[in-house]
Amino acid sequence: MLALAVEVNYVHWHEINPDTHELTHVFTSHPEAVKIFRAYPHVVLIDFTYKTNTYNMALVEVVGVTPAGSSFLIACVLIPSESEEGYTWLLRKLMDILECTGASPSVFVTDRELGLVRALRTLFPETPHLLCRWHVNRVIESRAFMIHKTVFYKDHVLNNPEIGWWNVIDATCEYDFNKAWSVFSQKWKRLASYISRTWGEHAKKFVLCYTNEYFHLGNTTTSRVESAHSLLKAWLKSAHLTLDTMWSRIHSMLEGQHSKIRKELQDSMSRPRITQRLFSLLQGKVSTKALEIMQDELKRGVALRVGLELGCGCVLRTTHGLPCACTLVDMKNNGSRVHLSDIHSFRRTLEYDNEKAMPKNDNDMLEELVDKARQSDPVYRKVFLEKLRDIFHPENEDILAPAVRENPKGRPRGSTTRNKSGFEHSMRKYGTPSTDASTNIQHMVGDFAAGVAGAPLEKNYTKGLLSTWVKRYGVMEELWPHFDCWIDVGSDGHCGFRVLSHALRGGEEDYIQMRD
């Protein structure tokens, strides 16, 4: 694997166990991905997945965003576990890639993986870190269900327009947030106590009024990385690959990804799509994605009309680097036009060129070192050459394959379907009680149930849930006897594809492939 990476000029690092000489860490980044990352380092999303290699190592995907709105894989990283040490090693390599440009990410988006949270806090203390709102909400919904034990908990606890959780997380200003939290915590004391203990210190990483202060390009969830996981596993086609086979398939996937990105950026520069005078100065100089966002924002502003200044929110400038609705409407009414200076440089950078980012003195320094090596004693020349050989010919090192890790996360052994998360067990599948009700309940709520302090599970709480549900949603009475369970797929705009994935593949995680 390392030899193949060197052959096609990948940026790569690796670590070995000094006692066993087994490979423990691998970082690889495609040379084109390095160029793209140096041009567009603004938003970085990080998540890990399992069942990609025969060694059961965690595969961390680091994903970025282009001006055209596409995702690109910055790096694939194999680490032995999701520890702070592993993530610290990974983040230092990202810093090394960007060091020559002096750039730094504008925001990181991750799940609440504590090792990663701590590593980011240490290495990027000034960079905003957002937690995936989708996962936060799913976990809180799961806890709400376990506490209140009713299929109507969403209506009462979460979606209630006066006392629900969504009023808290979607508050658009700090005053509204504090007010909504005060009302919510008084009404739902036990759930509020859990949220305060578990999520309180992270509130600024997912509550809307705080995330709107960051340049995140609309990325407040890790859905881009989840899509990257699905795409990668579709290319791998196996959960038990050796490192060289896995790397070769990922390389083929990346070649296609980069061709698509180049075409999208070229289209932004060449295709004449602008017909409105308001945007005429931007022809071929900003991404088509930026134009689409501004056109939608203008339509929103025109639709608001009365109370535009209050209804606008004026967050697009901060979160996307583009003029907001009220600004665009004012420009249109005044007959003025949007200038390039009104657009964030990210949206205007339609070419990426790594050479421009490299320090000019690098070649001079290299030549100076080579000259010194030539003039030095043969002993030092040998040391110099050995170090260079280790970098460019890692296959000559005494490196053994990684040790197989026992009991990794992910799918059960021999299964092609991943383990469900706790919130999926407790929220998405409600069946009739088994003869051993307590066992059935434990299966449904997953490991999360163990953390409910002072909330003993009621053995018969599933009784009647199914009949209540089919009545509520208007299912014909003749069909009732044929229902064994119901499944509530994720409500993220892809529910139809999630249903297809459930029906055809036994789980909704392959919905991206259904869509494609």
List the main descriptive attributes of the protein structure presented here.
516 residues, alpha+beta, 4 domains, 7-stranded mixed β-sheet, two-stranded antiparallel sheet, 25 helices, 9 strands, globular, MULE transposase domain-containing protein, MULE_transposase_dom
Tally of helical runs: 25
Please identify the structural class as seen in this structure.
alpha+beta
Distance between the termini: 30 Å
What percentage of residues falls in helices of 4 or more residues?
40-55%
Strand content: 5-15%
Mean of residue pLDDT? Answer: 80
The poorly predicted ranges are 414-419, 425-465
Largest sheet: 7 strands, mixed
Work out the count of structural domains: 4
Radius of gyration: 26 Å
Q: What topology, given as strand order, has the largest sheet?
A: 1-2-5-4-3-6-7
InterPro entries: MULE_transposase_dom
Domain MULE transposase: 43-137
Region (Disordered): 404-435
Protein name: MULE transposase domain-containing protein
Detail the topology: elements first, then pairings.
Elements lengths: L1 H6 L3 E6 L6 E7 L1 H9 L3 E7 L8 E8 L5 E9 L4 H16 L7 E4 L3 H10 L5 E3 L1 H16 L4 H6 L6 H5 L4 H14 L1 H11 L8 H4 L11 H14 L6 H28 L17 H17 L3 H5 L3 H5 L4 H10 L10 H4 L5 H4 L4 H14 L2 H15 L29 H7 E3 L5 H9 L19 H8 L12 E3 L7 H11 L5 H5 L1
Parallel strand pairs: 3-6, 6-7
Antiparallel strand pairs: 1-2, 2-5, 3-4, 4-5, 8-9
